[in-house]
Each structure stands twice: as C-alpha cells, then as structure tokens.
Amino acid sequence: MHDSIGIPACFSYSDQRQADEPASVGRSGQSVFMSVYRTKLAGQCRLITVTWYRNLLLHGLSISVQGTDMDEHYRCKVELKRWYFWRKQGFKHFIVDGKNVDVVWDLKAAKFNGETEPRSDYYVAIVCEDEVVLLLGDQKKDAYRKTGCRPSLIEPMLVSRREHVFGKRKFSTRVKFNDKGTFHDISVECNNSISSNSSSDGFDPVLDIRVDGKLAIQIKHLQWKFRGNESINVGKNGVEVIWDVHDWLFGSGPRHGFIFNPIPSSFVSASSISAPSSPPSSSLTSMPLSNQEVNSASGDNDNATGSSRFCLFLYAWKVE
Hints:
Elements lengths: L24 H4 L2 E11 L2 E11 L4 E8 L6 E7 L9 E8 L2 E8 L16 E6 L2 E7 L2 H8 L2 E2 L5 E11 L2 E6 L8 E10 L10 E8 L2 E6 L7 E8 L2 E8 L1 H4 L5 E9 L26 H8 L13 E8 L2
Parallel strand pairs: 8-9, 10-18
Antiparallel strand pairs: 1-2, 1-10, 2-3, 3-4, 5-6, 6-7, 7-8, 11-12, 12-13, 13-14, 15-16, 16-17, 17-18
C-alpha cells in the first residue's frame, strides 16, 4: 500500500518494516511525524503506529496496528482533502485477528498552524471491543461521547517518535520527554566556520544543538566527530543525545540523524543546558547507531524503575 521511507543506514529499524510509512521522504520532500504506542488491542499487547504526513500534494494520517506476526500489519489511511466541502470527520474500520477495530476522527476545527500534525481542537480515537484503546488530541470528552465507548483499562505508552524535517541549515521540533512534562523546543544547526588548518582546506563545520533556545551541545571539528553521544539535563530529565551526520558531511546523502533518549537521572553526568557540553568521550563516538536505534525504537530499553523510556528520532534532511 505504501512505499518505504529512505532513511540513513545507521538508523535502520529491523523490528518494524518501513511499509508502515507513507512515502519516500527523499523523493517527495515529505514531512513525516510518526508516533509508536504500545497498548492492548484484540487481546494482545501490540504496537500502534500513528503517522501524519504532508507534502505539496498530500496531507494525511495513517494508522498501523502490529499483528501477532511481527511482519504483519493492519492499516487504515485517512487523506485530508484540501477543498472546502471535504467532510473533516468520520470513521473507518478494519479487522485485527477477528476483532473489529474502528478509527474515529474529528478534524473539522483542528488547528495545524502550518504544521503536519494538528496542535489542538481535534481527536482521533481507536476503538476495539467497546474500549477506546488509543485517543489522540485534546477533545477527549467529544471522542468518548461520539464513540459511546469507555476508556481502556490499560494506559497506552508512547514508545518512540520519528520526525522527518527539512531545512537548509537549521532543523527544529517540539517534544515532551514524559507524559506529565512540558513541551521543549529542540533545534539542530550545522554551520561551516573558517579554519586556518591547512589539512582541513578551510572546512571546519560546527554542530549546535539547542534546547528551549539555550545551547546544550556544541561539537567543533565535526568532520572528525561526525558520530558521537553526549548526556544533558533538560529540566528534571536526563537525556542522551546521539548523532550521526556522516552522510551529510561526506556527500553520500543529504541526511542528518539524531536520537534523543531520556535516561534515569542517576546516570546523567553532564551539566545543565545553560552551557555548551564538553566534547564527547563515550565509545559511541566512533560507532554507527543501528544497535542504539533498534533497542530504543522497540521499547525494550527499560530504565531502573522498570518502565520503558520514550525515544525521539529526528531525521534532518538538508535541502539547497
């Protein structure tokens, strides 16, 4: 039904097929925001992937439910039409292991503010066996009234979020690192500085990562440190930042790759975000990120308290 998204090889995700994603980002210039939740549906604990996508021609929502076989997925797609008379509310249903699953949405008052994913005044509900197993948006009362179903006894868990964003030099997003926390603004910027070192031919890129406008990490001499990791504090949360910008620097592709992975506070060794971090010293500095992403995206990286940690994957695509 869908083409796979082209992503950096070091960020390949072996546990979930890219068929869940709606189109090739590289070919279409399409912004994609994908959230993966774990919850119980049709008697099984499953991953539900919610994808918002947008380009010059398309704007839509795709929902994928993991089957009992990890390679099998059930899908539902909603296209957001641009013309005025499109009915911006409705429902669709599909069958998962013999159980009816309904997707009910109301986007008629949704505020997108120019973004791919709505910010407010909407709901998208996934219903199975008279329970709302996953509810997105801020109009929760309207969703329960429309569906006539009760909330699920099991609270869905946000396992990971993937964002494909485009820009010339600066890439930005907003994220909450826990359900009860506040949104944080994250920006990544790669600049070229002038170097007097003859061996660098004047090419001396610098990577700046900011959180809420404050410089959290600055990596100088990026051509030698194109892969690495650093731990920072974001509010009360410890966050490990992992980057891989090899493709962008050395001409093999236009893509940056970043992972923001919350960690238990007892393991945070870096200073707060009010000042640039020191150069990375971990062994991850020189290795690709495939193992890191597989563990984080599958939700198996449990912390000390026994609960899975949310993980943000940011794919930043450079355009001229």
